[in-house]
Known about the structure:
The chain is of the alpha+beta class. It has helices spanning 14-33, 47-53, 59-64, 83-92, 139-155, 174-185, 194-202, 213-219, 231-246, 291-294, 309-318, 338-353, 367-376, 387-392, 413-418; strands at 37-38, 44-46, 67-69, 75-78, 104-113, 125-134, 161-167, 252-253, 265-273, 281-287, 302-308, 331-335, 358-360, 381-385, 394-399, 405-409. It has two domains: 14-173 and 229-318, 2-Layer Sandwich (BirA Bifunctional Protein, domain 2), CATH 3.30.930.10; 331-418, Rossmann fold, CATH 3.40.50.800. 37% of the residues lie in helices and 21% in strands.
Amino acid sequence: MRYRRPRGVNDILPDEVGQWQRAETAFRRLCKRYRYREIRTPVFEQTGLFTRTVGEESDIVRKEMYTFEDKGGHSLTLRAEGTAPTVRAFIENNLQGQDRERLVKLYYIAPIFRYDRPQAGRYRQHHQAGVEAIGSSNPAVDAEVIDLALAFYQEMGLEDVQLRLNSVGCPKCTPAYVETLKAALGAHVEELCPDCQRRYERNPLRILDCKQPACRRITEQVPKLLDMLCDECREHFEGLVAALDLLGIEYVLDPHIVRGLDYYTKTAFEFVCKGLGAQDSIGGGGRYDGLVEQCGGEPTPGVGFGIGLERVLLARKALGLEEGEPAREGVLVAALNDEAWAEAIKLTSELRDAGIIADLDYRRRSLRSQLRFANSEGFAATVILGEDELAKGVVVVRNMQTGEQQQVARTDAVEYLRNF
């Protein structure tokens, strides 16, 4: 039987890995600059961590989680999003220590698993880069995580990224808005899509986030949550806007941004890259001041974001920013006869010990075939060893870019190639 990968997942092939490494390196470098430290959580968690925090009526819990029972009868779920596992680890490992006002700044790059209809940039296993800043309610921290995300987009060449901003309030003001929203939607329930008809009773805020044209036309007419915030949420939002203005970050107020997770409070935001069509969102996040307590910890505020790396790479492709031909690097050692083979093995080892990328053609083909191989594999140089070279105590170094050849003493070969 010939096996194929499951629907909705991808192999990242060697020729594609370079662009992934570029994105991951850029994200790690920026996180270090902002003093965020990496955390790595398990690929699966107790199912309750997601059902309790993300929300039982969220699409993630209702439709998209990969949940299974282990041999001990425990319900486990593959990582469905990045924030709840990070918060669980924050609590379980006491990352805040004794200083309850300490701001703990974490980042992760991890696979996320959701059973969703595969589409451009959205797969059943996708990869997310995210940050979580846990321990401060200062709106300037919200501005910092937004600034970090935008710096990453810029680093990836995505200049035309728009920040869409909203506040989803808090437990003091959101319930009153929900009642106002239900009243405004009451006469239009039958016109909503089936999902939003269900949400009307169970999670009305999610109706604002629906992308169906009919639902969007209806929600354009409803009151805005920003107009009904309590004093605390209004003050926080004004502080965030002031901080963004100080940083010179442009934003668009969007009352439809509520995010798909129940734990969000106050700040909610998304990043949109123009030119991607309907699936133009390339990241988002918000504040979750009640999540730590919900997971069993002390009341502790937090804010963060998640960025889909597939979406970022798709945006780069759409903008013509795909990686060009990789720079040539490394050395192929080509042995022309049996006597040279042993010396070729020794030289390859010496080059590797010196930190130089080096390889052999183990098929022992002709020089012409080895040179063709070195060219196709992107080697910078080929070292040629044959009967004449062994007799003279030299090697011939061929520049694979120009075709020029240079005779070098065997004793000087490693140093020469180190500076090639």
